Amino acid sequence: MAERPVLYHCPQTRGGTTFWMNEELGDVCEINIVDIRKGAQKQADYLAVNPMGKVPALVHGGVAVTEAAAICAYLADAFAEKGLAPAPSDPKRGAYFRWMFFAPSCVEPAMIDIFNKRKNENPASIGYGNADQVIATAKTALAAGDFILGDQFSAADVVFGSTLNFAMMFGAIEKQEPFTSYVDRLMARPAVARCNEKNAAFMKELGWE
Ligand SMILES: N[C@@H](CCC(=O)N[C@@H](CS)C(=O)NCC(=O)O)C(=O)O
Prior knowledge:
The protein is an alpha+beta fold and 209 residues long. The protein has 8 helices and 4 strands. The chain has helices at 15-24, 44-47, 68-78, 93-115, 131-140, 155-169, 179-187, 190-206, and strands at residues 6-9, 30-33, 57-60, 63-66.
């Protein structure tokens, strides 16, 4: 599809995950800033894109994609030549999807439980079990090497790494190995430095302190 995707983003939000993905791909999206402090995410024009009234969102070829992990997976496939997703025939595709979706399905709700000091009384009936199970399982994702796919960085690291980074930054998951080394490795990437610079400029433009 020749048309440039439009990424709806706001600094200091989960939009950061998709903004990083865009930067890893070589800045392939047009960026549209949604000022959530001014409530732009609840205005009719944005609700038409994402009825949840949340960022991020992506529009490409007239089609909206929401949910940070879905946007990252979509962009990795749309720009497959950049090598951030294993091909459908590649056996690594299983681990790629598995951990990319483990992050929002399991790590994120467990993180919110810890943050809100909420204990699940019936882990068998809850999709993510409990926080201890999630943390122990998340560690196995990093057994293959420096990245989820071993020595190959992929969009799964953008999603999984962003989630772990936020969880440890806000104290929802205690800083611990192998998470800290993994996140440090990811945060040292040139694309992350570019995102930090660009987000600082956006915040200045928005008049945020
Ligand atoms: N499940 C969504 C969550 C998006 C989300 O929670 N976005 C927050 C910012 S981190 C937001 O837009 N909040 C503004 C609001 O709800 O008014 C995703 O993964 O993309």
